[in-house]
Amino acid sequence: MKKEFGVKPYLFPMPTYMIGTYNEDESVDVMMMAWGGICAEDMVALNLEEDHKTVANIRARGAFTLAVPGVDTLEASDFLGIATANKMGDKFARTGLHAVKSSRVDAPVIEEYPLTLECVVEKMEEEPYGLRVLGRIVNVLADERVLDEKGKIDAGKLGAFVFDQMRNGYYAVGEKAGQAWSSGAGLMKKG
To answer: What is the DSSP string of 170-189?
Structure first.
């Protein structure tokens, strides 16, 4: 038997991403978000509320970075989702994280995050559910510590965590459970 919950945004897992932008005074602004992800080979979609300082920064700069945080930065990353730069000007400084300027877009790269997408704004669309920001990926940066012996990104080394919207928890990701486009291939032969 299944229990009904009505209309809820209950899907698991929800990603945790960090949006990096610059404020008008060149200080760093970073915001955690979970409503978004890859929407094309070279595009990301972010669903945001208009009143975020990060949204004003994206509009002004036309660029942002999108990073995958690791569990080693969970406390600081969660704080960056709780605090608002509209009320707390030193929000990023409080975390102890470090930023460098991207060489490709007008946005910061947070050194402690193992995987960062550098993005330019392609489109911003007002929708009934909020603002959708479409960003074109112009480059991907990965810390050497998350690369395998062939120089490819190893998702198991990211130390990533996902958001559980049903109970407001974070869950570590890392153990490989199968091989995409291969684990179910045996069922193709049945018939």
So the answer is: EEE-------TTTTTGGGGG
